[in-house]
Amino acid sequence: GFSSGCAEIWLANTVQTRTLCLLPCAEFLIAEQSSNEAEYPCALHPCLESDEENAGPLFKAFAGRTRRNSGLLSSILRACSEMQFLTIYNPCDVLSVSS
Hints:
By secondary structure, this protein is mainly alpha-helical. 52% of the residues lie in helices and 0% in strands. Helix 1 runs antiparallel to helix 4 and helix 2 packs antiparallel against helix 3. It is globular, with a radius of gyration of 17 Å.
């Protein structure tokens, strides 16, 4: 589960999104629309754009990590320049080399 601090920032993010992004997000959720705009594959749906602009800075300031800067992919298409790509090492390989 989440730590209490982590749960609190997720709750604050949700409340902020609901407060500031209600109209574009209601349409987005009811119509089950794509996360991205069809004409521009990396352009966000207005709901997600609103969330990113209005709730994102607070979340990033407290959480420090986001899916993008952690290298985690999601259903939201992002430009490669926005993603952090991580090299994953098998810890067993690293341990056997240093032993």
